[in-house]
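Discussion board: Methods & Data

I've been asked by a reviewer to show the raw model output for two of the constructs in my manuscript, not just the figures. I'm not sure how much to include, so I'm pasting the format here to get opinions. Each protein appears as its amino acid sequence followed by a line of discrete structure tokens. Is this the kind of thing reviewers expect to see in a supplement, or should I convert it first? Here is construct A:
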Amino acid sequence: MTRQYLGSARRRQRRIERGVVVAVLIAYLGAGWWLSAHDLIFPDAMSRVANGYYTMHSRDPHLAAIGFVWNPLPSLAVIPLLLLTPIWPALASKAVAGCLVSAVCGAVTAGLAHRLLGILGARGVVRLLLTAAFALHPLVLLGATTGASEAMFLLACLFTALHLVRWLTDPMPWHLVQAGMGAGIAYLVRYEALAAGAAMTVLVVGTTWWRERRRKGAAGMALLDGVLVAAPITAAFGLWALASKIIVGSWLETFTSQYGNSAQVGTFRVSIDGIVGTGSGAQLVYISEQLIRTAPLAVPLTILALLVAWRRREPTFLAPMFVLGSILLFQNLAFLRGMSFGWIRFQIAAVPLAVLAAGYLAASASEWSRSRWVRKGLGPALAGALVLALPLAWVTEADPRFGREEALAREVAKGRQYEIEAAVAQDIGRMGLGRGAVITDVAYSFPIVLASRNPAVFTITTDRDFEDRLSHPRSSAADYVLISAPDSAPADAVDKVYPGMWENGAGVASLIREWKDGRGLAWRLYRFNDA
């Protein structure tokens, strides 16, 4: 009878979890459709779609066109959908392919959060309210509806935390293998996964040693478990770096490329300091205020949960704390060291951390509190507090000082940037030019190439003969150059070879046409002069 009851309870929970996933997916797809219809598209998300697009629809399609500056999985995931762009052009031109992938990832992540809350002990309405507080948080919702990599990253992180929790309660090696695979997949999405991989390895080694400390060979067993959990992310890091070295000559393009994170942060350092302030003190205040306003309960609830876990000698909460907490710490330290833009979405790990801490505290209240009111009311109170904190997070997201990317997306939509860039693609298409006739740096012109019905007309930076054609344009029938102003395209490859191309054609080309959106962002088409 007990076994039948447990089986029935599990089936009921699985049905509820599937219902959560379906409901959240419908909500995310609807929100994504609305955002896309109003051109509220994040450039970072669209660029990931573009990287996948070049592998199939450029003049020189090849897998390495996906690039090595950013981790490959978000771009690889959209490739199957991009096969349908001849039927549904918006998959590329509006980055809908990325939105669909991120919506699915976000919905499954909500299901995993619901499952993790159950494992940590949360039940009933409290569990559903906490899941809703997670799914409706602006960082989570926008990450899942704009095509940003955060949704996929969070999915991998919660998968990792889930199997790490299971290993802490049932030390079977298979759980470690799954946790390690989750971390390896997370690295193929974002570099911050290295912090989680290191943190979980420390947790596993320490836990195994503690469990086996009275047995001979405890250190060896701890080392073995550490290797088991760290191997997948180590392999992912090594193989991706090796592929980058072989193909483009650099181990880590994000640090060495002119388009990488380091170069971009350096280029925009003045504008970042203009908003944040200069000096480590101003940066610390900014990042602290950003965290407090987006997830005000994350830090206090995590500290309380750790104290309760210590008192109960219960290690399960350590899994999400080590995985998500290490990512949050890494992101904020990277900003303080001048290595990050400090976008508000980089605080996203605090959201599930707060939700899971609340679930753990609610579940454990019956053991650490003698008060009936605390035992019965703590769960609903914590869930209600997280729900009530959502408006503050949404207001912060709308504040241009903190939600800088979001404010830029609104300005771009108001200035009709994507509409003008689509017009550029159409106008060039009407010129009836041959393959590769227009040279352009797609680090900046990717919306134009994505909107083109004939992308093969462009010679782009991912083409293997790009540098050759740029150096000898007339001999390769590359007659035109499409370029934007240096302040909006500071590392444009064309301007590096032909300084002054934007201003006056660098003495080698003549202006054919100019397009300008409502914000003043302009594109110029130059034609190389006859020799």
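Construct B, same format:
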Amino acid sequence: MKASPTYLLDSLSNNDVTFFIPPYQRNYEWSTDNCKVLLSDVSQVTQANLSNVKTEHFFGSIVYVVEEVGFGVPAKYVLTDGQQRITTTMLLLIALRDSIDDRNYKKEIQRRYLENDRADESVEYKIKLKQVETDWEAYKLLVLGHDVPENLKNSSVYQNYLFFLKSLDPFVDEDKKNLLEKGLMKFSIISIQLEPDRNPWENPQEIFESMNSLGKPLSLADLVRNYLLMGKNTRQQSELYNGFWLTLEKRLPGKLSEFIRDWMQADQHRSFKVARESNYKELYGAFKEIARGRSAEELFESFVRFSHPYSIVCGLKQTELRALDQVIFDLNVIGVAPAYSYLAEVLAAWEARILSEGDVIEVLTGIRTYLLRRRVLGITQAENKFYPVLGKRLSELSSSEDKMGSLFRQLSSQEYALRLPNDDEMTSRLRALNFYNLGRSRNYPRLLLSMAEEHLTKSRPVWDDSRLQLEHIMPQKLNVDWRQMLGEDSESVHQEFVNNIGNITLIRHNQELGNKSFCDKKETYSGQSGLQVTQNCVLDREIWDAESIRRRQDYLIELITQKILNIPASFKRASNWNQSDNSSTSFDQRAKLNPLIGETIEFISNPAMAAQVISDSKVMFEGEEWALGPLTKVLKERSGAKISKTSNFHGASNWSWDGVKLVDLDI
């Protein structure tokens, strides 16, 4: 290793050198904020030196490996660290060249810093800094002073050049020249040359990983790409990068780190942490263990094969098969990122003709049903770790004659937290649920009602139709007419049913119907704005009251549980989780409450106080949802007992069903 201090522009003006950014490096990613900092540093150094305060600025280290290129050709410095800083400096120099009026000065910047006089006319060597492939075209055009086409103007290379150009516009030529001569020329660096052939311990990969670069931290994708490409010569690097990695970048823009993590899950059939900046290095360590003994070519080929089905499940690419694309769209509306690795494996089996088109639609529809049933109950626990393991059983699924039955047996053989909700759970929850506010952005009610419309009419409403909106039939705010229709109990009926599934519908309408009369709303529903799911059990009613809402509620619940989210008969009333695992003797209150959904339980201290079980964790008492522990505490306080603020109660010990304490139930 050779290290020497020097000025940055002295290195760039050396005609015996051409800098190369190897394919294993990430794309140019500095933001305009980074550029603002650089320009500010240059300006401060300039002002200090103009004030006769001799000032320099240390710009960090530049690490490179010298690659032999042959007689008469400038030395090739392959950058290991410093890519982002050198590229940004070059963009500032290009902007200075283009903004200065002095023609001779323009030529001098071009000759000294941007092009290499000693190189032949080959553009690759003539330009002093060779970029990675995705940045090369825009950078090359800027250096050569050519127009940049519209399709390249969104690149960071062009945007940062434009920032510098606009920032320099208010300056006169003398000020611009000072920025170069009194500012940028005073930026010093430590130039470090690695010699891995002579000194094996100077491993570029290890040094690269340990460098604390000034820019954005390396992502998981950066680390993996570098690991697989570094150590190859530049020809091999270019072949692997252009033949494989570039395909991944184009196919999965902005998703490569998440893709690598999901590829690891599918490859190992076990879960890994979600790819985030805080754990990139941990995931990278796990990847290196997976990659041990496997060639870069083998791994790249595996990435590219997996990336095609993965791009489909992410919604970045479509199969052009309407039914399949629709169910994948639905899965992404639900939010199914934890299942991407498994879903991509299912699609890969289809592409390999292990599963037929009908099979893959059936399996993905089953997953959609499983997830939507769980979302209705508000369950997401343990799913992150579940799907990669489920991939192990894909061969069992593919060989089964009854794919749907096999899938639901797999889904029902998991722990309680991963259970498949049965019809009783669904019915009870949908009756008590605030359906209007189900899920983020109210996507779940929109999706379920859209699926109901498709079942009724064979036509799905267009999801991104700006007119498509959820509608309260009985409005969220009552006026005099609505109070009169609802009668003396209007406030209690409104409070209980305003967000009930029976009162929520889907319409195509440009304006809110608000608290218009029921008669006016029916007129809208019966026209072009109305969907079939809106008209059924609504248009045949003269008044809209609690009885009407309950009637439509039962209709929609039946439609959802028996048609839209239907499951095989053997699972409809069953406890769909693995109950044979006796490894833990700990009490699980949720498992006790689950079979009692829809049933009434009694408070042991006062059996006159009863609550209805509405989920595995909540009961309905006096019109409000409660967890058993807090409800028990409140009822004991009502009875006059002195209760400490810090007291907690084991609800299952204080409630009974059919005369038996919940804690003692065996059902």
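Answer (T.O., handling editor elsewhere):
This is acceptable in a supplement if you add a one-line summary per construct. For B, something like: The CA atoms of residues 179 and 415 lie 67 Å apart.
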